[in-house]
Amino acid sequence: MSDANGNGANGAGGANPEKDLSAQNLPGQRGQGGEEIRVQRGMFGADNGGDTSGYGGLVRSVRLPGPATRPYGGWFDEVADELEGALEEQGLLPGNAIEKTVVDRGELTFHIEREHLVRVARTLRDDPALRFELCTGVSGVHYPSDKGRELHAVYHLRSITHNRLIRLEVSAPDSDPHIPSLSSVYPTNDWHERETYDFFGIVFDGHPALTRIMMPDDWQGHPQRKDYSLGGIPVEYKGAQIPAPDQRRSYS
Questions:
Q1: Domains of the chain listed by start with CATH number
Q2: In whole angstroms, what is the distance from residue 76 CA to residue 69 CA?
Q3: pLDDT of residue 2
Q4: What is the pTM assigned to this prediction?
Q5: What is the pLDDT of residues 26-70, one digit of tens each?
């Protein structure tokens, strides 16, 4: 949908209006840029001969976008300047709280050190020049090959006042999967953090009642981690017995 001026439905909250749509900004054009975290062989990462897709010989690198350099373009610089200035006013060096700032696919993402997440989120919510009043939830991501930061939590923040959308990203290692809860800043994150804990095992410290929300309370493991077994249970179907996925024969 577009308004009378031809702007997208999201207005300033969509892609950065001053960002050129060059070839480097299009999906799939990252090339050799960014940070390589692993090399994937085959289409779906199967390494036991069970890849029946026909793409078993495919080799590609999996990369995360690297930090952006100034100027970011459009209102991205304004948000970054205001956030850094507000943190300095609180006596916190921005470089100690913001690990890196990424501009990729028309989105602005601040990678935040987990111990400073609550302060940064509260600043983004309360500062009049920022006013990101709404967090639409937190999503978990698991990168088993990203050593020391295998678990990522990604937050989408919306400024209703300024009609802007940014992301926060925080990482934690598998060996210490703790990230501060944002439920005290954004109460609607209560259930989103429970779901992320349930499926990825991220422990949100300070959450009022961090329990499973989808899986049974006594479930072992976290099903959306990349290293989680397919599992499953045998199913009877018209007299035939269908084994669980991890017990079926492989086509190699």
A1: 75-205 (3.30.460.80)
A2: 12
A3: 42
A4: 0.78
A5: 444 455 677 888 887 777 656 666 666 677 778 888 888 999 999
